[in-house]
Queue: 2 jobs
Job 1
Amino acid sequence: MPAPPQPEVRPPAGLWELYLGFLSIGARSFGGVLPWAYRVMVEEKRWLAPADFAEVIALCQFLPGPNVGNAAVVLGRRWFGLGGAVVAFAGLMALPLVWVLALAVLYTEWAMHPAVRAAVTGIGVAGGGLFIGTALKLAKPLAGRPWGIALAAGCFAAVALGRASLFVVLPVAVLLAWVAARKGRL
Amino acid sequence: MGEVVLYFALLSLISVGGIPSVMPEMQRLVVETKGWASAEEFTQLFAVAQAAPGPNVLVTALIGWKVYGIPGAFVALAAFCAPAAALAYSVGGFWDRMRQAPWRRHVQRALVPVTVGLVLAGGWVLATPLGAEDWRTGAIAGAASAALYSTRLNPLWILAAGGALGLLLF
């Protein structure tokens, strides 16, 4: 069976289209931005091929800062320079920011209500659990690599249990990990 | 507010792995160093950010809002995003050219265990607002992490279930 014809990939026509695209990513991305970024940019608007998307995300996961925020900057710049970077980032953040501040104000109104506090604490603790689940997924490549496991455990112990400052732990950990990676231990 | 701007801007540049990695450091600043919120309030602020659409970096806006109101929200978000965004803006092309360079692979591999440890720590500080020995938070966080790890459920449902369990247990 012949493969279905690939629809053509075409960058956004202008800043307004770019803004609306990122606005729709931000507005719909409950429970995680990445799947919606993929759906809007690759599947709906066809601004990017799947491989382009994966490459941009790999870079943005490596860079510090919010992944999808970085992707907005990198792609906005690629298509329209500085203006594009600003417009894409603003589009991504605009509606979620309004939403989260409205929720925060609403929450303050209701915070004295014990049931509300109990539910919100439950959500936050479950959110912490999501981080733990994410860390376990990320840890899969470390299986059978004692150096990697020791480094991850050391970072966890220093930061979570020892409450050491990240500004101290991170440089030391990255240096050790770099040495281990060069020796082929990671 | 200048101190917070500087602190967030520096944190921005070391936030490899995004917000989850710097969560323990933010909690340390807000709860332990400054005393702006209790550990429980910090977890609740994070919950509010999780219940909104958009990147989880919005929690920085909520920290700013908690301390300095609406202007604080914008300033904190900008302080945390701008330095990383400037870096992303300037290295995009460079990174593509380095695709074959061995150091790029080394750096990518080196960051995996560090990110794992820090994201785990971020989960830990958020999931233990009542102390490490509280079985209720342990049960909710354990169930949530297992659900994320082994199912393809939308995380939003996991958070909703956490809210329901919170109502029952706390």
Job 2
Amino acid sequence: MKRSDIALTLAGVLAATMVSACSPSAEDTVLLPVKNDPSISFRIWFKVGSQNDPVGKEGLAQLTASMLTDASTTNNSYEEILDKLYPLAANYDAATSVEMTVASGRTHRDNVLEFYPLFMDALLRPAFREEDLERIRSQMLNYLENSLRYASDEDLGKAVLYNDIFAGTPYGHLTAGTVKGIRSITIDDIRSFYQQHFTRENFVIGLAGSYDDNLLEMIRGDLASLPEGHGLQIDKPKPAPIDGMQVTIVEKDAPATAISMGFPIDIVRGSREWYALAVANSWLGEHRNSSSHLYQVIREERGLNYGDYSYIENFPEGSRRQMPPQNVSRRQQIFEIWIRPVPHEVRHFAIRAALREFRMLVENGMTGEDFELTRNFLSKYVLHYAPTTMERLGYALDDRFYGVQGSHLELFRKMMGEVTLEDVNSAIRKYWQYGNMQIAIITKDAEGMKEMLVSDVESPITYSSPKAASVLEEDKEIIRFPLDIKAENVKIVEVGGLFEE
Amino acid sequence: MKQFLITGVGMAMIAASVPPATAQSIFPYQHEKRVLENGLTVVMIPMESPGLVAYYSVVRTGSRDEVEKGKSGFAHFFEHMMFRGTENFPGPVYDSIMTSIGADANAYTTDDYTAYHLNFAKDDLERVIQLESDRFQFLHYTEADFQTEAGAVYGEYRKGITSPWWVLNEYMQNLAYDVHTYKHTTIGFEPDIKAMPQAFEYAGSFFSRYYRPDNVVVVVAGDFNPDATFALIERYYGGWEKGYVKPAIPAEPKQRAPRDGEVRYGGKTLPIIDVAFKGDPFDPENSDYVAALLLGDLAFGENSDLYKKLVIQEQKVQFIAASTPMNRDLPLFEIYSMVKSENDIGYVKDEISRVLKQFQTVAVDTKRLDDLKRRNKYSFLMGLDTPDNVAGGLARLVALTGGIDVVDGLYAKMDEVTPDDIMKAANKYFTPERRTTVVLKGAK
């Protein structure tokens, strides 16, 4: 069908009487009708991610997705696409994570007739031109070689942590790939990756807002023209067990020290235990929230940095997002502590302070009072996780990924009324431990940092302002808190060589 | 808690009810503005958003108001201090109540204003009004707390300075302005941030001059009853004494010649070119200014000829974009481009000049101008989808004008812009006498 035909058909169906009831969600669809939302949101989920990157071609999944949504189609050059989208104030793009690639777009319903054919062209009729590849390749290399290595030490710390924990598994490289991988990718690689993974049995349609059923049928019909195939499903990764405290120090002329640490956890959202663990995690380190206990100890009481948080689900772009992202689902999660940059002179102290708090939580569990406060907080706070239709659609797709019956966000609120303190403390004991952990440190004088860690020398701290007696008393414990880090478990790397291959 | 004893009785409001959205209005929600006797302005935008409310307190003070030497960054620092509690609700109590409410609460500071914002369930509206009114009137902290918080602010500076954009903006503002407070970025000069712990007394004076009802606009959007909400706001804020002291912001002398600078960034980066021109203060009645708001996108936006040439065809730059901000005083209209090779810096600068010259001499295509107007309209409408996006999206206009009545006028004025207006604006603003060019280069 030509685009003009599609537009005519769509005009006809939209002019017809609106069908109020939507089809029940079929196998390949996740629907979220919101009749009074003036916009229509699309999320087409392809079950492919960076875990499917061939060895030596790291970054291929993301590059392929960008070649769909940021490049020419056989109907329009990239310039023509930009011209056509421009007056609509509508856009589409593709986001790739380790297990998911989601092409998403949103348009005002007034403009859906013009938007929809462009969006479908991108998914079904990519041109795969060399000049588009070179433009996108250059952007990805700039990200790896310049932005990630130099422009944000806290993002760098997280990237190093994830790569260390998942080394040797399909999760063991960044979604953005490696410098060598990106350089080696050819149009043929992209074409064959597309044909293998962007297939008829390998997607889920997400549609939300004031669409009607005819639009849904049209999407189904159009996507049916994709080649047959189930993609390539791969096993859940098995990260190697972490033995003791394993440290990577990235040597860099950094203005402050950025720290991330964590270990794999064998639990994902949807179970009662996960929601119990979420209570403990929220108390310890709710993202960008002053209710975070780590924030209270390190920032609020001592003024050492801008914030300190913890996670039981992957949370990319933490320095830019206030609320959790959608469609970064993964079967294997890690527990993660994020210490935002601290002055070099307190780097050792800050690691001790965070690990000491974590150890106390693991050993003692939560108190009844903290438990009540936190579960009440979460029962309301999760309302803010997905205020827009597009975000709720993202969550609905993630529900499909995790096999959550109903809605994770609704279940989250319900579970806050059901989980008990014993559930929380038992989940802590089952899933958290403090003896085996990977630590990533971005700092200067890496040798000096290593020496401090390995010798376990005291890390005295002085303040330029008076502190409460209780803080000073606690400091006496923190400065000598044992880290038990062995020399052979500390690796020093130069920033210039990271993500090379 | 004396503020709780004050009731709405006797508090005559200066009514300024605005009629609901009309066919001519682009803004799709009913809204009304009321002003308390003490000058506190309240903008209420009820909208469908089951159970959720957004509450913004917009203080019309930002880094622009930091006129005293050595005190750059103070508006932002003060934003941090506003979370340290009062005698009624000391910091830990405040935190604990906010936690129990489960609000999404935060704040940010810009050049022209500081915004404190919360999203929460509608049942907690009175509690939020109570807490917000309390900290705006009765903020109380110790010198030790003040000094500790200065450490967090310095931490924020340290995390940001690793970005080349941060380095570039600091350098550009310092070079482009001589005396106006836009000379420093919102977070301030580093030596001033280092010295913040010693400025305890100054902080008191800052609060007393700027945190006054006649300098604050409260914006409420979402699922709430306007009359009942206004009654609560009157009750809790009514006793707040007016007393805003307008700062004497130095007038920037007229720039007479182009300026050029180069700055080094310690890490690796592709070079960035920033070509800036001094613009005009926000004024929807100034047709040159309104045309300039559109010009940046027409000349350098993602479907501009230059974008297509440099980004897509020649692939000499990672991106190019323009920024034409809305400010109380004269802002910088800027064109940014990240260039792939140092050898092309001169070429890209020349291309930017060529395009500006073209806009000064050749009328822009009417269809492109119409496309942009349509884009702006839909972009605005699609951005108004949640209470937070409505209140947050309007915060700058609220800070600039004291309300949101300006929205319809601004969009109507944009609709009237002609290709000749664009040419006139290009000739007025994009001249060598207004220009400052900075090139940032990374480490070898």
